[in-house]
Design brief:
Strand content of chain A: under 5%
Largest interface: A-B, 95 and 98 residues
Distance between the termini of chain B: 18 Å
Oligomer: heterodimer
Largest sheet of chain A: 2 strands, antiparallel
CATH superfamily of the largest domain in chain A: MetI-like
Shape of chain A: flat
Largest sheet of chain B: none
Strand content of chain B: under 5%
Number of helices of chain B: 12
Number of domains of chain A: 3
Low-confidence stretches of chain A: none
Mean pLDDT of chain A: 87
Order of helices and strands of chain B: HHHHHHHHHHHH
Number of helices of chain A: 20
Helix content of chain B: 55-70%
CATH architecture of the largest domain in chain B: Orthogonal Bundle
Distance between the termini of chain A: 49 Å
CATH class of the largest domain in chain B: Mainly Alpha
Number of domains of chain B: 2
Low-confidence stretches of chain B: 289-296
CATH topology of the largest domain in chain B: MetI-like fold
Chain lengths: 424, 296
């Protein structure tokens, strides 16, 4: 071929173009055609999904809002040498910005200021009305500094002013530090939160712990079932597969409700135990609205995700392997451990990773059956999104969780391949 | 996988233990779903088996359709213990509406994309595939937070449009995966044959490609529907107070007024999932080409 092309005589297509050029053109056309088919969905996912997630990532480090509320104050503030109290200009700037600022925007900024030093919010809330009154009266004071300190002595406290240094940048890491129970002290060093405000590390650890437990139980429970399904004749295994697939297709909320019915104090399991005489009527076990409930319910809900990958791996392990091992003198247990088990590792790792990844991001089930000590990290995302409106912290927790997931999925992709995901 | 006749007694014991263990796991998987069905027909306002229900011979007093009447909004019962309203029916209508609309768009977009992805000339296939699959991978709570922030900026929160857009994004990965899997066994010569016989691309698509991949498309659509129909996290954040759906209503029910009405709806949903499961199973058997989602 090479000899042919290197000769001066080129192969031409019917319309007179060299074959190479024509082929390239056709290939490019094909590429564009294929891409055009994918393009609508790609655009849709980018706009409705990827951009919002990116927006969340930006929000987790974003501190620009407060800079739009106090631009002049911050500009003057940067000139301050941090000795004694700030100069008159800083007081003047903040006086006018508080007097003229829009209520909602100032309110948001105050919430942010309180994250850096508690007391900011009440200080400004207490003094803002008087500042406005002075501003409206038209008789502007000669010394803004003295006036403000007269209104409230807090304005003469250097600590407040030092803490402002953390807010003058457009980007901040405070939410990430908050998400792992740390914060900045007054000088901008990273320190632990107060004892009573430390709850995130605890929840992160609990999330990992519950995920490990759930993965472990799913593996223990899923392994024999997958083995049975893979080795039964198709007629029976198809029938038994319904037991795995029906929960898989049933609404998550239905399954969660069902577990509440089963596990509650007057529930089915306690009822059976009392009826059998194993426990007395007044010793009913508290199995729901705590961590036990979360683990039991999540294990059942995620079990199909373990069984299905295990099953598809076990299905292709030839039965002759075990027989050959035993034929060569291995006892059944030895044959199982040395011959069968190693071949199921891909299935175990695929199922294990899938269950683990799904478990750490779980929200609905722990929220409903978890009670106080069974909540996972998703609870705080929802809490800050809806209740405290601390969206920065909400986004930071979400971003950390997302990072953990991506690392795990990268692993999953290495081991199993993302396009090998199978459904049902 | 019966035991060989030469098995030792110990092997026999192990074998039966193994069968019992499997039985327990199957029971664990299915028992909660089965247990709720009889309780939904209870007379009692608590989600428990009452003594009357367990009595033999059965006590007709203990059983009733009372909670089903509540569910459909027939409030003739004088001794109301839980508020009776047509919230569940409004929720059902909304759920089906959101489900159908998002399934339609998700199926159309997902099928097109799967056709493109299966072409041998597709550039950056891996990267694009992982972007398209990502809504399925990212935990719902993160998706919900991100979408809430972003949709709040463009005034789409508290609208059905916002919810539907979110649900389409969430359910397309299922369509892409199932249809791509179907296309793995697709013979491109069919397309060439059709075109050489003079059919235009559109005609080829509807007359040749579509009938062949239809089982994959339908099961993809069913996955998409159940994803949207069952989704509660996004609805919780993005729907206004009066935009009820079934999952949202169930969530509220579990949170506030635990009454057997939830179990009635749950029983209906179990019936729906049996229906969907059967359909998908039949489709799978009918077309050997849907290798991607089948258990080979």
């Amino acid at each position: 071929m090479e000899v042919f092309i290197s000769t001066t005589e080129q192969i031409l297509t019917t319309d007179g173009l060299p074959l190479k050029v024509s082929l390239k053109k056709a290939e490019r056309k094909n590429k564009i055609r294929a891409f055009l088919l994918v393009f609508p969905l790609l655009l849709f996912i980018l706009v409705t999904f990827v951009v919002p997630i990116g927006d969340m990532l930006l929000r987790s480090v974003d501190d620009s809002h407060i800079n739009t509320v106090f631009p002049n104050t911050f500009e003057e503030y940067r000139k301050w040498d941090r000795n004694d109290l700030p100069p008159e200009e800083v007081y003047e700037a903040i006086f006018f910005e508080l007097a003229t600022g829009e209520g909602i925007q100032v309110g948001k900024a105050l919430t942010r200021m309180n994250y850096s030093k508690s007391g900011w919010k009440s200080l400004i809330k207490k003094t803002r009305r008087q500042i406005k009154k002075i501003y409206k009266s038209g008789e502007l004071p000669t010394s803004y500094k003295d006036t403000l300190i007269d209104i409230h002595e807090g304005w003469g406290d250097t600590l407040f002013w030092i803490s402002m240094a953390q807010m003058t940048e457009e980007r901040t890491l405070i939410y990430y530090w908050n998400a792992i129970d740390r914060t900045y002290d007054i000088d901008g060093n990273v320190v632990m939160q107060d004892e009573k405000r430390r709850m995130y590390v605890k929840t992160w650890i609990r999330t990992l712990k519950v995920s490990v437990y759930v993965t472990f139980f799913c593996l223990i429970l899923g392994f024999p079932v997958a083995h049975l399904l893979a080795n039964l004749p198709l007629r029976y295994s198809n029938l038994l597969m319904i037991f795995v697939l029906l929960p898989f297709w049933t609404s998550l909320l239905v399954r969660t409700t069902a577990w509440i019915v089963m596990l509650q104090q007057k529930g089915v399991i306690n009822g059976v135990l009392v009826w059998l005489g194993i426990i007395d009527d007044d010793q009913r076990i508290q199995m729901v609205y705590n961590m036990t409930g979360t683990i039991i319910a999540m294990t059942q809900i995620l079990l199909p995700f373990m069984i299905l990958p295990l099953y598809s791996v076990m299905k292709v392990i030839p039965k002759s392997h075990m027989r050959a091992a035993q034929n060569l003198g291995a006892k059944p247990v030895r044959a199982f451990i040395r011959v069968y088990l190693p071949q199921t590792v891909p299935g175990m790792s695929a199922g294990g990773l899938l269950v683990f990844v799904l478990a750490i991001g779980y929200f609905i089930t722990p929220e409903l059956v978890g009670g106080k000590d069974g909540q996972l990290i998703g609870h705080w995302i929802a809490y800050h999104l809806k209740t405290t409106l601390n969206w920065g912290l909400c986004a930071a927790i979400g971003s950390i969780l997302l990072a953990v997931m991506l690392v795990l999925y990268w692993l999953y992709n290495k081991i199993v391949g993302i396009d090998n995901i199978k459904l049902g | 996988m019966a035991l060989p006749s030469y098995a030792t007694p110990i092997q026999r014991t192990y074998y039966y233990l193994y069968l019992v263990a499997c039985g327990i796991v199957f029971f664990f998987l299915i028992a909660p779903l089965v247990a709720i069905i009889p309780i939904s027909f209870s007379q009692s306002p608590f989600m428990v088996f009452t003594e009357g229900m367990l009595a033999w011979p059965p006590d007709p007093e203990a059983w009733s359709l009372r909670w089903y009447r509540y569910m459909v909004g027939i409030c003739t019962d004088k001794n109301l213990t839980t508020p009776c309203s047509n919230k569940w029916m409004i929720g059902t209508v909304n759920s089906f509406f959101v489900g159908f609309v998002s399934t339609f768009f998700a199926t159309a977009l997902g099928t097109l994309a799967a056709l493109g992805l299966s072409r041998p000339h597709m550039p950056y296939k891996g990267l694009i595939m992982s972007i398209l699959i990502s809504p399925m991978i990212v935990p719902l709570i993160i998706t919900a937070a991100g979408m809430f922030f972003f949709y709040a900026k463009i005034n789409l929160v508290y609208t059905f449009t916002g919810i539907i857009l979110a649900h389409i994004a969430l359910s397309t990965p299922f369509v892409v995966i199932t249809v791509t899997a179907t296309l793995v066994g697709f013979d491109m010569n069919m397309v060439r044959a059709s075109q050489s016989l003079g059919a235009r691309p559109i005609r080829t698509f509807f007359k040749v490609i579509m009938p062949l991949i239809l089982p994959g498309v339908i099961s993809g659509a069913l996955f998409a529907f159940i994803t949207s129909f069952d989704e509660v996290v996004i609805v919780m954040f993005m729907a206004s107070l009066d935009q009820l759906t079934i999952p949202k209503q169930m969530w509220a029910g579990i949170r506030q007024e635990i009454s057997p009405v939830i179990l009635c709806m749950a029983t209906c949903l179990v019936a729906l999932s049996i229906f969907l499961l059967t359909t998908v199973e039949l489709l799978r058997r009918r077309s050997e080409k849907m290798r991607g989602i089948s258990r080979q």
